[in-house]
Design brief:
Layout lengths: L1 E14 L3 E3 L2 E3 L3 E3 L7 H13 L5 H4 L12 H14 L3 E10 L9 H12 L6 E6 L5 H4 L3 E11 L3
Parallel strand pairs: 5-6
Antiparallel strand pairs: 1-4, 1-7, 2-3, 5-7
Bound molecules: magnesium ion.
């Protein structure tokens, strides 16, 4: 059977931290706040994968109360989600994600982000969809207070 999962995440900007999106460090004057590397895009994708196999969210698997996880590279979280998919004899069909941010411009980093995600998930890069949009100045994202991401994952698994 084919199932889908939905993921959403948001992190606020924080001075003095690197900005990591899809495992790639994006040159920017500030990063995102979080217990891990705060990779909002990777978190949304991991949650989408977990949802597609009926698993609980990444906050359950990687609690922010666990000091051993401080500063963890979120690609490790994504790898773990991939392992849970594989453990169910399921395969990932495709991922699609949208970043919502007023800044920085994501365009120059699209290819490297997609390649990073494809490598981590063991997928051809064509199976990773990635888009970016602004929030048209509306709300917290529009005021440039943070970055949000949403993602959908489709997996094929035994009935
Ligand atoms: Mg997060």
């Amino acid at each position: 059977m084919i199932t889908t999962g939905l993921g959403y995440d948001i992190h606020r900007f924080s001075e003095g931290r690197p900005l990591v999106l899809g495992g790639i460090v994006i040159p920017h004057h500030r990063g995102l706040q979080g217990h891990s590397d705060a990779d909002v895009l990777t978190h949304a994708i991991a949650d989408a994968l977990l949802g597609a196999i009926g698993e609980r969210d990444i906050g359950h698997h990687f609690p922010d109360t666990d000091e051993s996880l401080r500063g963890i590279c979120s690609l490790e979280i994504l790898s773990h989600a991939r392992e849970l998919v594989t453990a169910r004899r399921a395969t990932i069909n495709n991922i699609d994600a949208t970043l919502v941010a007023e800044e920085p411009k994501i365009g120059p980093h699209f290819d490297s982000i997609r390649q990073s995600l494809a490598l981590t998930l063991g997928l051809p890069v064509e199976r990773i969809g990635l888009k970016a949009t602004t929030n048209e100045g509306l709300g917290s994202i529009g005021r440039g207070e943070g970055i949000a991401a949403m993602a959908i994952a489709t997996v094929e698994r035994p009935a």
